[in-house]
Amino acid sequence: MTRLRPTTSSFPLMAPLLTALLVTATPQSAAQAAAPAKPSAAWAATERAARGQTVNFYMWGGSDNINRYVDTVVAPAARKLGLTVRRVPVTDTAQAVNKVLGEKRAGKVRGGSVDLIWINGENFRTAQQAGLLKTGWAESLPNARYVNWKSPAIRTDFGFPVNGSESPWGSAQWQYVYDSARVKPSELPRSFAALAAWAQRHPGRFTFPAPPNFYGNRFLRQAMFELGGGPQGFAGPFREATWQRASPKLWSYLDGLRPNMWRGGRTFPADLPQLYTLFANGEVDFAFVQNIGGVAADVQRGLLPKTARVYLFDAGTVSDTHFVAIPFNAAHAAGAQVLANLLLRPDLQLAKLSGDTWGDGLGIDPGRVGPAFSAQVKAALKVGPYTLDPALLARRSFSDVDATYDRRVQDGFRAWLK
Amino acid sequence: MSGLSRRPVPRRWTPGSVLLGALLLAGAVGPLLLLGVWSLAGAWFYPALLPGEWSLRAWASALSPDTPLWAPLWGSMWVGTVTAVTATGLALPAARALNGWPGRSRAWVQSALLAPLILPAFAGVMGIQVVFIRLGLADTPAGVVAAHLIVAVPYAVAVLSATFAGYDARLEDAARTLGASRAAVWWQVTLPAVRSGVLVALLMAFLVSWSEYLLTLIVGGAQVRTLPLLLFSAVQGGDYALSGALGLVYLLPPLLGFALLAPRLRSAA
Amino acid sequence: MVAPALLVTAGLFGGGLILTVVQSVGVDPVLGGQKVTFAAYRTLAADPAVRASLLLTLGVATLSTGLSAALGTALALLLRRAGRARLRFLAGLTLPVPHVLAATLVLLTLSQSGLLSRVTAALGLTRGPQDFPALLFDPLGVGVVLELVWKETPFVALLVLAALTRLDGRLHDVARSLGAGRAARFRQVTWPAIRPALLTACVLVFAFALGTVEVPLLLGATSPTTLSVLAYQAFTDTDLGRRPLAMALSTVLAGLGALLLWAYVRTGSSR
To answer: B62-268 belongs to which homologous superfamily?
Structure first.
């Protein structure tokens, strides 16, 4: 269950399907990987400085799968490098950003308490604008050679240039979850219009987490794309005219949907896990997931029933990248860089992709690692009832749009509620 | 129940008191049972009354050496113990002094001591956090203890005030006239007389700290990890099996402490 | 001798409150120098969500206090009648249960797909989760009230019971011999004896209900939510411009608490 706050570039037109890049190896990139970079003297110094450090890694802590991945895969690997990982769980990434902001304001310019943050989208933009992040380090990590820095999904986050102040960790794409024991594949709504019609026939069986929750907001934005004629129309910087044209359609769509929603649309789940609970217990018939591995990990964990399945809308869904960043005042910046580098290591990336652990998409380009690795990636993904074919995902994906739309949807939703 | 009634008791178990007892017993055992079953559930969905699959996943996840149950458990224990001892240490002389305090000003001092029970503690802690950051107290167990003391001290004062209300200070005078030193009076007369109260105050202060969620989060910045923080995120993450396991680990120490000290509660209050 | 304890409650906490008020009017205690502004309070006053939240907060606090007081008193009287330490012990067992855990238990038991709903389904009373009353995550805060009542009823009961224990049983006998009925005996003898303890318990329960964050976060609706949750959300917002809002909300809550404390001390000293 990947869940970070909003995300990724404002380049829906280029939409170069991150997933495709990540999962399909190309011969050229395999050749590139043949010459492993020699670690520089500077990096050797960083590694030396990192020895014995304890890195405070701030990350959303609501998923046992993700926590266990960090605790049982990442932390032991870090220990071999003389590094202790202290995973600091937060209920919202914004809390970590807020913490660094507070320290900056209190005049704490070094010895800061946050060393590494799992971050993307709106939080990245806020942090970057406030000058909270260390810049220009990510591309010089030794394992950065596995990253396709030319991909717009990695070069920019939320339309904001990444500029080496974030190192990619993984990738995700929006998918819909249904229970095959309750809904036949032929009945599945594959567009927002069809969803509204379905809800009318099955009142009380659909809901989404209320914005400002990330999932609710992203759901509504995708509805707006469809109602507004497709994501292409929202490309580039925020335009007031576009918003004025599209947003009324969104609110009237919601007006129609609301009475047919769970509890008559008077209340909403607060976060994705709550929606999963409703879904797993048969209170609603749909949920969402962002893992490239689909719901494999959640089914295995017993959070979702074995009859859970994933599917996509015909017009496609949003895909994006998530990153790690180092605050400007991090007490253990060297350790944080070594950890960020470790997160990119192919074996750890592979372990993360597996539905046995987390199911998160790769942050690196398998082609840059080698053909053997690409084969392992294919094996790890186990396409099946719980996991969609990555090629299908790639075909049906587009990037998210400028952050301002996100903010407007959030404010508009609050006004619409009353 | 038969085990209970075998002992000689002053009154007979009437049907009413048996019913009340059964209800209370269900209320006490039910939650433990519910947590226990959830902690062993593999997949447990509506409308199943019992898990369809049993699994040790939650316990394996909670107890494996790699996972972070131990740090929060230790954190809760450490913060709770230091808070309890400090709060009681601060409250003891205050309660003793309040006992002999004259007239009107007593109400004022008492209000000042007990105010954090009624005013929301986080309102003060949010304001002081900026100073804590400056002093390097933010994100440290010491800072968290300081925040917990705000709530723990008033509880300890309340408990010990009640204890001292029934305390006869003339005992101390008698000991003094018999030539006992100030310290000897404190250790040999005052403390033994209020021992029950002190134990209850320690327990109360520990429980207050053990239960505290928001103050730990504000001051500890999620770096000082305690059990309520861990449980909260497991519940919010929708992992009820893990929540069940963590809940049991979280519940047992306070229950045990309460059970051990319950006989003294009445005498102290 | 009271100085060390006062240092914590008046110094640390009182000082913190002053800093909260200072920050609520836009002054940074570390950097200083800013102009005093009441913008945060104006923003709050203009926001209908805050008004809804204030109503919800007061409603939840009042209702949970009232219910815990009534049920707690009844439980105390029952326990007094039964007169057994074991029962008293059982009744007190919820006292050490932390609220995060109590809220978890309420969630597992009373949600629409919770244990109780499964029992009613097994008994054929309900046909699906939607038939079970929507007690949790509701805009009226029913779930929050239920958690508070479950936790606080025994607390009230034990405080009242302590007062009852101090009450001389012979007073009842005298009243009975003077021809007082059951109701009159309660009014004339029992009630005056338990009133101070009940009042104290009510004030503590009300104060806790005002300030709790974890319970509404786990059991309440996303909107409206309580003032304390709004304050916490504003405090942790990435927009530092919302900090003064958090401080203003905290000041309002502290003000409500102070009002409560003042009323309590006044009732206490008027007796």
So the answer is: MetI-like (1.10.3720.10)
